[in-house]
Amino acid sequence: MARDEAPARRVEKKRSGVIGSLLKLPFTLFWILLISMVCSIAIEWLGIYFDWFSQAGAEHARQTMISEMGYLDSQFTRSLLVSSPVEFATCVVNTGHEWVFVKTGIAGWVEQGADSGGWAATIRTYLQAAMFVTLMTLTRCVILTLTSPLFLLAAIVGFTDGLVSRDLRRFGAGRESAFIYHHAKRAVTPIFLTGWLIYLSLPFSIHPNLFLLPCALLFGLMIAIATASFKKYL
């Protein structure tokens, strides 16, 4: 009787683990967005304080934001998720700006203190930089949302290739390695989430394909390795 209950418990535990992971995913993505935004603002403020950038004040953050929005206008004119990516991105950025800066009065205070000097001008510069960085991060979130089918495609290709390799190993003399399987399986989620975190936190403008394509390739590769090294017999 105890032997019959053990497999059922394992299946139930596995199902609850999958459901729990799916329920935690939105909160995980929210924390990634929040942490990356805080890191981006901190890096930008340090750059202003230590004069790391060639542009003065908040100009570096503004130029970076403009460059990121330019990628949307020129590179993401079509999408599988929305009919008009540019309009969707503009709506998201404008809504974020309205709720975070306009309704809180931050944008109005910054505009009113445009001609001020002293410590008020310094605070205004740092707040302007934070505004531009926040809008830049929202723009990158839109880019990640629009490119999410790329990671889905990489996962499907990696899973299919892994199944083929597993079948060849099953019907051949291939050896199975639990070490490779468990380490490849553990690396799938960190690669996906860490790639997003680094991309959102970068303090300079970068073409999305230069970063997202290698991440998607590595993501699919880990899925292929984990699937191919899965145990021969269920």
UniProtKB/TrEMBL annotation:
This is TIGR03747 family integrating conjugative element membrane protein. InterPro entries: DtrJ-like. The keyword Membrane applies. It comes from Pistricoccus aurantiacus. Pfam families: DtrJ-like (PF14348). The chain crosses the membrane at residues 21-43, 142-164, 184-204, 210-230. Coiled coil: none annotated. Signal peptide: none annotated. Keywords: Membrane, Transmembrane, Transmembrane helix. It comes from the Bacteria.
